[in-house]
Amino acid sequence: MKILLASHGTFSEGTQCFLKLMTGTETPVYTLSAFMDDRSIEQLVTEKLKEIGDFDQLLIFCDIHGGSVAQELFRQTHEDTRNIQIIAGYNLAIVMDLIFKNHIVTPEEIRHSIAEGSKAIVYLNDIKADSEEESLF
């Protein structure tokens, strides 16, 4: 399995840094940071996919659904017969869950990780101030 983190700006690089720091994973993690130079998104995606090369599965995480990065990655990969899975609007919980599976993940596992990962987004102000600190997390 290989991972591609793709974003507008350097969000993907920050995610990669966090993953290296917190997971110690051996899974190859690539980044695509769009609009940081004069290259078009089409050119960036083409170059990155060529750099990634062969894989048994490529998990692509895009920063936002409907954004130009996700659109171009989908455009260039949707007819590819290799095992390419695209997740748009990711968070760290989703990426970490899928990396820790350490095997070729199924669409069902991806959907489950997305559902569970969405639970990791919490508005802490909704928790009563008199709650014990340990119960916040």
Could you please describe the fold and organization of this structure?
The chain is of the alpha/beta class. It has a single domain, classed as Rossmann fold, CATH 3.40.50.510. It has helices at 11-23, 41-52, 68-77, 92-101, 107-118; strands at 2-8, 29-34, 58-62, 84-88. Strands 2-1-3-4 form a four-stranded parallel sheet. Helix 2 packs across helix 3 and helix 4 (92-101) runs antiparallel to helix 5.
Brief descriptors of the model:
single chain, 137 residues, alpha/beta, Rossmann fold, 4 strands, globular
Topology of this structure?
Layout: E1 2-8, H1 11-23, E2 29-34, H2 41-52, E3 58-62, H3 68-77, E4 84-88, H4 92-101, H5 107-118
What would you say about this model in short?
By secondary structure, the chain is an alpha/beta fold. Helices cover 42% and strands 17% of the residues.
**What CATH architecture do you see?**
3-Layer(aba) Sandwich
CATH topology: Rossmann fold
Main-sheet strand order equals 2-1-3-4
Question: What proportion strand?
Answer: 15-25%
Average pLDDT over all residues? 92
Structural class: alpha/beta
**CATH top level?**
Alpha Beta
From N to C, what is the helix and strand string? EHEHEHEHH
* Percentage of residues in helical conformation: 40-55%
